[in-house]
């Protein structure tokens, strides 16, 4: 199989157009969690995501949170409040994988594993120049953690 890249650049099609709502990127991912507070704590401590909004219901239980990671917004939602989706679990097959650039793959994998994540794929070089590892978080979601690796060794 041959891959065609414009001018040999994997990222030549990336555009820098501002979003109409300042602070939001063009894609916001919405995920479902039985325990939104536990998810906020995990992502803040293991991945360095920043909570922007945390909304409790009338009983004081969090039903929605918005977090940011380097310009990407992620919403964490309790089942049933905004959709009929349920939380992914460690026992269910994942339907997608997040690809997240981090400063240091090894330390981020260690931080996720220390908080209940499970290593799925050890760090290895990709054909496009990233060092990448895969971790399943305690909620069942898969994360490819990547950093640019120009040495490609």
Reading side by side through the largest sheet, how are the strands ordered? 1-4-3-2
Q: What CATH architecture label of the largest domain applies?
A: Roll
What pattern of helices and strands is seen along the backbone?
EHEEEEHEEE
Q: How many strand segments?
A: 8
Q: What share of the residues lie within helices? A: 10-25%
Tell me what you see in this structure.
The chain has 153 residues and is α/β, with parallel strands linked by helices. It folds into two domains: 24-81, Roll (2,3-Dihydroxybiphenyl 1,2-Dioxygenase, domain 1); 88-153, 2,3-Dihydroxybiphenyl 1,2-Dioxygenase, domain 1, CATH 3.10.180. Helix content is 14%, strand content 35%. It has two helices and eight strands; from the N terminus they run E-H-E-E-E-E-H-E-E-E. The strands form two sheets. It has a four-stranded mixed beta sheet with strand order 1-4-3-2, with helices on one face. A four-stranded mixed beta sheet has the order 5-8-7-6, covered by helices on one side. A hairpin with a 5-residue loop joins strand 7 and strand 8 (142-148). It is globular. The mean pLDDT is 87.
What is the strand and helix layout of this fold?
Elements: E1 28-32, H1 36-47, E2 50-56, E3 62-69, E4 72-77, E5 97-101, H2 105-114, E6 118-125, E7 130-136, E8 142-148
Parallel strand pairs: 1-4, 5-8
Antiparallel strand pairs: 2-3, 3-4, 6-7, 7-8
Helix pairs in contact: 1-2
């Amino acid at each position: 199989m041959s891959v065609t890249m414009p001018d040999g650049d994997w990222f030549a099609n990336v555009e820098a157009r501002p979003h109409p709502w300042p602070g939001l990127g063009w894609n916001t991912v919405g995920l479902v969690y039985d325990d939104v507070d536990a998810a906020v704590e995990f992502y803040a401590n293991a991945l360095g995501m920043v909570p922007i909004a945390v909304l409790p219901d009338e009983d004081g239980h969090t039903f929605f949170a918005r977090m940011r990671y380097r310009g990407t917004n992620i919403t964490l939602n309790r089942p049933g409040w905004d959709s009929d989706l349920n939380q992914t679990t460690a026992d269910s097959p994942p339907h997608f994988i997040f690809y997240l650039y981090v400063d240091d793959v090894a330390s981020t994998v260690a931080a996720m594993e220390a908080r209940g994540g499970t290593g799925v794929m050890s760090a290895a070089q990709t054909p496009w120049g990233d060092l990448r590892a895969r971790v399943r978080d305690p909620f069942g979601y898969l994360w490819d953690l990547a950093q640019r690796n120009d040495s490609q060794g």
